[in-house]
Amino acid sequence: MTITVFGATGQVGKHVVSQALALGYSVRAFGRSIESLIDKDIASDRLVAMKGYVFEEADVYKAIQGTDAVISVLGGSFDGKDRSRSLGMKNIITQMEKTGVKRIVALGGMGILSTEDGVLLIEQPDYPEQYKPVGLEHLAAFRSLEASSLDWTFICSPDILDQPGNRQYITSANYAPKPNQYQIAAGDLADCMLQAISNRQYVVQRVGISRL
After folding, report:
1. Strands across the sheet with 2-6, in order?
2. Which three-class secondary structure state does DSSP give residue 182?
3. What span, in angstroms and rounded, lies between the C-alpha atoms of 191 and 176?
4. How far is CA 196 from each of CA 31, 167, 171, 190, 204, rounded to the nearest angstrom?
5. What CA–CA distance (Å, rounded) separates 209 from 212?
6. What is the CATH number of the domain that holds 78?
7. How far apart are CA 8 and CA 82, in angstroms?
8. DSSP state at residue 115
9. Total structural domains within the chain
10. Range of the domain at 82
11. Cα separations (Å) of 13 from 29, 107, 188?
């Protein structure tokens, strides 16, 4: 299987790439400064570094054409001003629909999960103001996926710990899991996303996740 990883040099992206290679996948790692990813620990003849910009249609089309699945772990500023998460996702979706690639697992925030009252966490009056700008970017990315023809899964992450994973985590469709520790290791997020690719669990669903 060949997967394309957008945001490959980021906190979670590096784990996605290394774990995907360990699973035997061929990986197209896409990013603006992709050279920083390639070192002796991760070098592989199954890894192709693709330098490009997520807003550029031609760059994204080239990265997606002929791949089997896409993982998006796009980052950006927490003030939401760079629009990487929302507009970048929109371009990825457009190019996937052009190429016929259907499967995408994308990373967002837990504000996009539902509450028992039927609204999203980000829509609640007491949602923390400091998280709203990035949360609205995640919401726009989710709405674009929801309106697409793709087989999408949207992983709604709590606070991400810069740690390798131990697979001691819990997931839940569309709602926050119980118990919820409001934290997850970057390595476990990567594991969850790759598991979703391989077993097609949570297709056309949001996923809550927490460390145990």
Report:
1. 47-51, 26-31, 2-6, 69-72, 103-109, 151-157, 205-211, 169-173
2. coil
3. 18
4. 22, 14, 11, 10, 11
5. 10
6. 3.40.50.720
7. 18
8. P
9. 1
10. 2-211
11. 9, 10, 12
Tracing tokens 């919820």 back to the chain, one arrives at: 180
Q: How much is the pTM? A: 0.95
- Whole-angstrom CA distances from 195 to 19, 30, 33, 38, 61 are 11, 20, 27, 24, 25
DSSP-derived letter for residue 123 is G
Compute the residue count for the chain.
212
d(CA 147, CA 170): 27
pLDDT in tens, the chain (212 residues): 999 999 999 999 999 999 999 999 999 999 988 877 666 567 789 999 999 999 999 999 999 999 999 999 998 777 767 788 999 999 999 999 999 999 999 999 999 999 998 899 999 999 999 999 999 999 999 999 999 999 999 999 999 999 999 999 999 999 999 999 999 999 999 999 999 998 988 999 999 999 99
Residue type at 90 in one-letter notation: K
